[in-house]
Write a structure and sequence with these properties.
This is MarR family transcriptional regulator. It contains eight helices and three strands. It is mainly alpha-helical. It has two domains: 50 residues, no CATH class; 115 residues, Arc Repressor Mutant, subunit A, CATH 1.10.10.10. The longest helix has 21 residues.
Length: 188
């Protein structure tokens, strides 16, 4: 997959992505959300740089690449980091709950938990009130592992929002929550 960092930039002062978008002109930034009369706008009328799924995919693809690279130094994968992160906030989750919160397929989460258990970072126990259900929680070593990566995670998060003030951030987060409600498949 080509990424915007690989586009040659002959335009001084612009990032490679900005230079590429400038060369392509207005095809990527027209910004029509709804047409008069309720007709569906074309992709050209919306423009790629105003098409939220496209923008979210670009952001998350870059985020995930940067994250995976940074996690290598800690012998962690993105799936492991997501599990540790969720469990650092809410321990005692079932594998299904953890899969939903960590945005990871349940089969991938099961393998991830096997590996985290081998590393001594998590423990799985049967729920006392229902022996069929297993809960996952962090061990002390798991808490330490998360504490070791949290500064890196926060720094990446903080850089993502450079030049975004608090009001913009709150409005953005509020909009994301609305989008999540609109598209939600799970109750959690």
């Amino acid at each position: 997959m080509a990424n915007d960092d690989e586009i040659p930039n002959g335009d001084a002062g612009l990032s490679d992505a900005e230079a590429a978008e400038a060369r392509l002109g207005d095809r990527f930034r027209t910004g029509v959300l709804h047409r008069a009369g309720g007709e569906r706008p074309s992709m050209g009328e919306i423009g790629l740089n105003q098409f939220a799924p496209y923008l979210m995919n670009r952001i998350m693809a870059r985020w995930n690449l940067n994250m995976a690279e940074a996690l290598k130094a800690h012998d962690l994968t993105t799936a492991k980091m997501r599990a540790l992160t969720v469990l650092s906030v809410s321990s005692g989750l079932t594998i299904n709950e953890l899969s939903v919160f960590a945005v990871t397929e349940q089969s991938t989460m099961s393998r991830t938990l096997d590996s985290l258990e081998e590393q001594g970072y998590v423990r799985r126990r049967q729920r006392p009130d229902d022996m069929r259900v297993r809960e996952v929680s962090l061990t002390e070593a798991g808490r330490d592992a998360f504490a070791a990566i949290w500064p890196m995670l926060y720094d990446m998060f903080d850089r993502l929002f450079d030049d975004v003030d608090e009001d913009e951030f709150q409005a953005f987060a509020g909009t994301l929550h609305k989008l999540l409600r609109n598209i939600r498949k799970h109750d959690i």
